[in-house]
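Researcher: Go.
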Amino acid sequence: MRSLIDMDTIQIEITNACPNACANCTRFGQHMKPFFMSFEQFKEAVDSMVDYPKMTGMMGGEPLIHPEFPKFCEYMLSKIPRERLGLWSIFPHGYEDYAEIICKTFNYVFINDHTRADIYHHPFLVGIQEIVPDRRAMFAYINNCSFQHSWSASINPNGAFFCEIAAAMSLLFNVKGWPVQEGWWWRTPKDFAEQIERFCPHCGGALPLKRRSSLEAFDDISPLNFELLKKTSPKIHQGQVKVHDLKLTDCPEPLAAYKDLAYRDKIASRYGMYLTITPNGFWEPHMGTKPTPLMTKFKDWYGE
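Model: Structure:
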């Protein structure tokens, strides 16, 4: 497990609502009533991140559909420098007017519209405790979870969490997190043992499991999680889940086989924007048309 200060991003999740209905959505949005973070909750979250030296992200669901998105951006930028702000979005149709706000606020955008069949989602609702019943072996897997080692801690209306999947599960199971206050992100693994015990046994992130294309209609779920959620989950009521066979796979599908700038640049162009790669390997948004290599080389001739 990583300490939170070792992560390159901590997310503020302002909604779990989204225009898409991806298979195995990491926010479980179709299993519960959508939330929209209040401005007071958002201010509390941003204020807690002012001294965090890495990136603070705004995420959903789809953050652009939050009715107070422009107001949130203005407040976020007033507290944290643009160089430390990121946005995770599908750039949905109908919100193109937000392009200038996005470029002004965020130094980094991660765009992924999930319209490709080679974008896969891991079955996080397949609980490891149902596959690895020995607790010592189970927590050995959990301690080496690749998602905790590469994804983010999160804040949502239930509080702060060491892992973004744990944060999403807190909404499913109605469990509060840590208070959102200054310096909460200094916690180390020994400080989040209680959250690990509460959420990780219900999660499949630490195991090699078959993944599902995001374009499919179904979620994978383990039998125990199915029983826990069958009375409350709209997606279960609609018959859009598959009860998992609890078998491991030798070679999980890559989450995204493409990882190319051209794919994300094409999405950004819908908003009249283009992307450049920053020194730390992220994508920075800019208004306008992407300069050609010749224009970049001789930019003094063409003007800035």
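Model: The chain has a mean pLDDT of 94.
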